[in-house]
Amino acid sequence: MADQYAQSGEAVPASESPEIPETPGIPAIPAIRWDEPPEGPVVVLLDQTRLPGEESELVCTDPPALVQAIRTLAVRGAPLLGITGAYGVALAAARGFDVDEAADALAGARPTAVNLAYGARRAQTAYREALAGGADERRAARAVLAAARAVHAEDAEASGRMAVHGLALLDELMPGGGHRVLTHCNTGALVSGGEGTAFAVALAAHREGRLRRLWVDETRPLLQGARLTAYEAARNGMPYTLLTDNAAGSLFAAGEVDAVLIGADRIAADGSVANKVGSYPLAVLARYHHVPFIVVAPVTTVDPETPDGAAIEVEQRAGHEVTEVTVPFVSMAGSEAGGGISVAPLGTQAYNPAFDVTPPELVTAVVTEEGVVSPVTAEGLAELCARSRQVTIS
Ligand code: MRU
Question: Where in the sequence is the active site (predicted)?
Answer without folding.
Answer: 265 (proton donor)
